[in-house]
């Protein structure tokens, strides 16, 4: 018998066994979802609008776990859910379809409007599972490029300042303006997604800045620097399509800021291919002979679509007993 249930604390040992072929660091990273125990018991009772932690589900067959899925709400927009982990035993893609359909139905009933998954472009079978099996559509891609730190100076000519919460509406508008038109419906963001939380823990893992035009007092770009291990840092840039920004200045500033906190580190830059500024940035990185190390396909599924014009709907009454003549009312 097959059943899907909420993942429990002791499932992490079975999961470790399932993915034991991966390196120790990767296994540890992927099982961090169980670190929220026992707070996740309280978190389960929260409505979707208040959820902020990842939630995981496992699928069992004859009491043996054959798959697990983890979803997490987008910070500031819990109705946009991200599928961040999917583990399946060999030849268990049907179990994967059941897990994906389960979380879409479960969270869709709670009010979720969109589901997003990012997968490596080399995983053809996984792509087929999401697109052909579960109705996701490909919405461009995101690339990761590795920087060579020795090339950059420690100075920049642009004016940078720390991000403030009052900048959030402008940054959201900046991002939405840069999204290519036919991707806007599912990719656009809200100001709450950039809002800085007051309680971030004892150790910051994300640093945010903006580039400001000193004369016009307008924001030209936004950048966030994220790390989970204080060794690998990811730079995410949102650049205005209406202003020119110096990529050299942004990278120099970023390296300078990280160097104040960490002596040895690696820097990776994210390129969002669904924005109008991506081509220009990618051309710069190519000209500098930087190395692209990852290309993830962005897959999206909207739980519902807006009906622009109301259409007349006929009422249909279905009778279970076939020996009686049914009556249909229109």
Descriptive terms for the model:
disordered C terminus; Aminopeptidase; globular; 330 residues; 12 strands; twelve-stranded mixed beta sheet
Entry summary:
The protein is α+β, with helices and mostly antiparallel strands. It folds into two domains: 2-113, 3-Layer(aba) Sandwich (Aminopeptidase), CATH 3.40.630; 145-296, Aminopeptidase.
Could you characterize what this model shows?
The chain has 330 residues and is an alpha+beta fold. Strands 1-2-3-4-5-12-6-11-10-9-8-7 form a 12-stranded mixed sheet, sandwiched between helices. The relative contact order is 0.13.
How many structural domains can be distinguished in the coordinates? 2
Count of alpha and pi helical runs: 9
Low-confidence stretches: 306-310, 326-330
Rg over CA atoms:
23 Å
Topology:
Layout (H helix, E strand, L loop, with lengths): L1 E5 L4 H8 L5 H7 L8 H5 L11 E7 L2 E11 L2 E12 L4 H18 L3 E7 L3 H10 L3 E10 L13 E3 L5 H11 L5 H4 L18 E8 L4 E10 L4 E8 L7 H13 L6 E7 L5 H10 L3 E12 L28
Parallel strand pairs: 4-5, 10-11
Antiparallel strand pairs: 1-2, 2-3, 3-4, 5-12, 6-11, 6-12, 7-8, 8-9, 9-10
